[in-house]
Amino acid sequence: MKMLAHVFSSAVIGLEGVVIDIEVDLGHGEPKTFIVGLPDQAVKESQQRVYSAIKNSNLSNPRRSITVNLAPASVRKEGPFFDLPIAIAILAANGQIPQPGLQGAMVIGELSLDGSVRHVRGILAMAATARQEGFERIFVPAVDAPEAALIPDIEVFPVESLEKLFLHLTGQELIAQALPEENPTAKAPAFDQVDFSEVKGQEHVKRALEVAAAGGHNVLMAGSPGAGKTLLARAITSILPNPSLDEALEITRIYSICDMLPSATPLIQTRPFRAPHHTISHAGLVGGGNVPHPGEISLAHRGVLFLDELPEFGQRILEVLRQPIEDKVVTIARASGSLTFPANFMLISAMNPCPCGYYGDTMKQCTCTSGAILTYQKRISGPLLDRIDIHVHVPRVEYQKLSSRGPAESSAAIRSRVEAARQIQLQRFEGGRLLNNAEMTPVEIRQYCHLDAACEALMQTAMRQMQLTARGYHRVIKLARTIADLAGEKEISQVHLAEALQYRAKEFDF
Ligand SMILES: Nc1ncnc2c1ncn2[C@@H]1O[C@H](COP(=O)(O)OP(=O)(O)O)[C@@H](O)[C@H]1O
Ligand SMILES: [Mg+2]
Q1: Phi, psi (degrees; rounded to nearest 5) at 500
Q2: How far is the CA of 209 from the centre of ligand 1 (A)?
Q3: pTM, two decimal places
Q4: Which one of 41, 202, 335, 450 has the fewest CB atoms closer than 10 angstroms to its CB?
Q5: Pocket-forming residues, ligand 1, beta carbon under 6 Å
Q6: d(C-alpha 410, C-alpha 282), whole Å
Q7: In contact, 256 and 128? CB cutoff 8 Å
Q8: Ligand 1 mutation pick, 200, 206, 231, max ligand atoms within 8 A of CB
Q9: How many helices (H) and strands (E) does the chain have?
């Protein structure tokens, strides 16, 4: 009699799940286990866990030699998440579990020595792959079941322990299927960030941030210390529209793979706000490492990347941002081919105008030499500045304004205007892959951003006087489109274009 069994499982490479075929063959040798298929140390350690878990689940380990083969061999299998499928395959090969019940099923889980099934990262990506590859059922750690259930058209079974799965597969005690949460995006987001009503004055900065939020544009705020730059940046997510279900799934997939999904949060329904410190490493910011993992720019996908004290990051690290800002994805080269992670974020950045911080301040004298100021500002290259659509000066707020008790406009009120403008954009790009104006390429710009004669004339003068690059030209038009959308106007007019031009970086002239 053949003592062979197959169980399917999944591993994660980059952000994608891949199917792993686990084959177990029982032989006549002494009771020993061999695992083949290029497993790393963690997989080897799972031998011991599998043996103990079977023993501690009122089940018996076969008294035979056990050969486990994980295919494809070329896939680097990290992490111990093959314990549960290996244990099930061993029991099936030994005739303790009927094999037909495993057809069309994928089994995912890590085991404790006592047989309980532990959480694994990346469930969302693996469940998506299972459905794509035509699996009908997926057995996952019970804690991860709500996450897997976000994927429609596949049955999800939450598994608490090896023994419970054994009882299910032998028909003795069935596990109830995990059902998807109803309407998962309907929940109100928890806004624990700063509300715009707490920020006094700075009306023109608030307007600039509203425009940025409405179209997904990048921002650089400059001004002296204490002017409120960090405060304003921290308020930005409070005026962004909630992510759609598709966006929420994209965000969740990244956090799931990085094992950063908060417990009891199967789906992330708010836009991320990432504020890495300027001492961050290259790999930490853009992603990378031995087993490539997403960096801060991917954790900020569909949300905000906030770089405070921008010049402190140093030129080398800022230059690597240019490609992802343009392409909205980041490509990481590795020996075995390259990996791509999504990185479609809004860049919000802040800086002091000079090393002492008071250049251009109305109340305090700047103590820097002009050479020092120039060197400081040169740390941010022209090509990076060119990719930032909105440059805004944040002046110090006068005492009267700061102490005034008059109510400022709330984030909710601003957000409703932002949402209306985004709605116009969603209709504009309906059925396409674009979600906002900032994502337009020259093709869409030609299609949706018609300039009349007066606008053309204004643009011509501006190009000459401001020495706009071709990229700058396109970026100004996209920004003008957003300003027109906020105003509810079909066509871009001179007023919109003039406001957009005014946000363009000139010199550092604050
Ligand atoms: N416009 C403002 N309205 C209310 N509080 C402000 C404002 N500007 C600054 N502050 C206060 O000053 C503190 C410092 O502001 P911060 O945002 O850190 O300044 P910056 O980042 O420009 O140096 C804030 O935490 C806040 O308490
Ligand atoms: Mg600050």
Answers
A1: -60, -40
A2: 16
A3: 0.87
A4: 335
A5: 199-202, 223, 225-231, 397, 402
A6: 37
A7: no
A8: 231
A9: 20, 18
Mean of pLDDT over the chain: 89
Report the separation in Å between the CA atom of 442 and the middle of ligand 1, taken as the mean of its atom positions: 39
**285: Cβ–Cβ under 8 A, 6 or more apart, which residues?**
276, 295, 296, 297, 317, 320, 321
The strand pairing partners of 10, in sequence order, are: 19
User: 226 alpha carbon to ligand 1 midpoint, in Å?
Assistant: 5
- The protein residue with its alpha carbon nearest to ligand 1, atom 4, reads 199
- Cα of 401 vs centre of ligand 1, distance in Å, is 12
The helix (H) or strand (E) run that includes residue 62 is none
CB 179 within 8 A of CB 154: no
Amino acid at 302: R
264: amino acid identity, one letter: A
CATH of the domain at 30: 3.30.230.10
> Could you say which ligand is closest to the alpha carbon of residue 232?
1
Asked whether the beta carbons of 411 and 235 are under 8 A apart, the reply is yes
Ligand 1, closest atom to CA 200? 3
Q: Which domain holds residue 446?
A: 196-502
Q: What is the pLDDT of residues 6-33, one digit of tens each?
A: 999 999 888 889 999 999 999 988 888 7
Tell me the per-residue pLDDT of 464-492, one tens digit each, with 9 for 90 and over: 888 888 888 999 999 999 999 999 999 99
Q: Each residue of 240-281: pLDDT tens digit?
A: 999 988 899 999 999 998 989 887 788 888 999 999 999 999
Which residue has tokens 């693996």?
126
Same domain for 316 and 433, yes or no, is yes
Determine the atom of ligand 1 nearest the C-alpha atom of 232.
17
The Cβ-side half-sphere exposure at 307, using a 13 Å CA radius, reads 24
Is 226 buried (19+), middle (13-18) or exposed (0-12) by CB count in 10 A?
exposed
The closest alpha carbon to 165, from 226, 97, 104, belongs to: 97
CB 436 within 8 A of CB 302: no
* 318 and 268 fall within a common domain: yes
| Whether 69 and 124 share a structural domain | yes
DSSP 427: H
Nearest CA to ligand 1 atom 7: 228
Distance 339 CA to ligand 1 centre (A): 40
Closest CA to 389 of 433, 425, 439, 355: 439
- The alpha carbon of residue 5 and the mean position of all alpha carbons in its chain are separated, in whole angstroms, by 38
Query: Which amino acid, residue 200?
Result: K
